[in-house]
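Protein entry
_____________
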Amino acid sequence: MEVQIISQEFIKPSSPTPPNLNTYKFSLLDHLMPPVYVPMILFYPPVSPPISTSSERSQALKQSLSETLTRFYPLAGRIRSNLCIDCNDEGACYIEAKDESHDLSEFLQHPDLSLLPQLLPPFDSMLDHSGQLKNATTAPGGGADAVMIQVTNFACGGFVIGVYVSHMIVDGVGIGTFLKAWAAATAQSQSDQCIHVLPSFDGAALFPPILDEQGKFAHPTEATMRGLYRRFAKKGRCVNKRFVFEASAVAKLKELAATSSLQNPSRVEAVSAFIWKCARAAWKAKSGRSAPSLITHAVNLRRRADPNLPQNCMGNHVCLTGAIADDHQGEQELELSGLVSKMREATSKFNGDLVAKLQGQGGLETLRKVFQDMADAIALSTTNGDDKVEMNYIGYTSIVYSGVYDADFGWGKPLWVVPVHNAGRETISVNEVRLMDTGEWGNNAIEAWISLHEEEMWLFQSNQELLNFASLKSRVGIGSYTDFVY
């Protein structure tokens, strides 16, 4: 793959943002997230016969993006501080690129993950080395971009849309809402329909931030994802691999995970617990002894609020829940069904009452208690008399129900959607799992993008029990397994 950038511009909203909406304030839950970008890469195969040229497609995408940004106005602004976005209509960074030497099918036959960063907008980082926000692009007025987009056209007529959206303003559901809205606007511009997705940007009203006397956000680092990740960050080479669990394998895992008290575990619960079990085996093989382990999952609070919050709520409406496994808990609790039960018990704490407390004036204290309870459980599991025991960790993110595979811009739904980021030169990282559905081609299969340190990954992928459930083929559309090292 040889991607060449041919143009870069800033797409402004088609209508100016009203003065009363010029400042978007971050909510309590927005500050829970690290100031990084949420990535998404959507692969669209060529349409036969072609219904538009790449030039016509480009014009339609840019015009509809301009219209969409009028409704998603903070995405056309700049992140000036940790408190807010200046909704100044400076526009979304939009890059056009091309690869005239290769067909998209060549890449999809044998995906090389090391090439994926070429399909995303290039940038260094949203953070500088001190952990402070910095410009993600050379935007005219300074400040970090809220969204960056790259559209890459291939010789065959297929194209790829790569997107970065600031995690300070979207979660997995939010990026899906934006992409589906942009896609619908593009498709409608080519038809007589006129239906618009109307997002809600009321996060700060629903989950008010707490400010100190100086007007700064009074959110302690230990009650954030960054604070948790720092505890478990490791130096060294990290390997990211893609495992596909076919629908039949997922169904079998659900069956094995079911118990009399938990008769119908979800697909995400079954796959997550199975990966956790295999990771525990890898860690034990590496160190020669068992060690306690913690997993966290980002819980979507929209469906747990009473009444439910609309799916079109933008901003972050998630919170972290954690579950711990160690050898003191008994053999049954460390089997697949036991691990699923631990996850269900942890997530069940996020009910309507807890969401209501997060929305009140005591929201910060409620959030601090969530993280303090997790810290207390970690301390209990890692203390053996006067000795401290190392704990292993995996952070899970599920985008299984984001609906990104429904983003049809008028040329068909994406064949493949990849939720990965530009790894760059990072040598400090935490273990992560990103779960993604597979659209129509996968028929309820789940892709697991798993990031582990090099030796741990080698042991993990050698687990025969894992290989009995994870597909190890290289072609998109059948199931694949590829890797890159950073």
Summary: Confidence is low (pLDDT under 50) at residues 125-138, 478-486. The first helix runs from residue 54 to 71. The radius of gyration is 22 Å. Residues 183 and 408 are 5 Å apart (CA to CA).
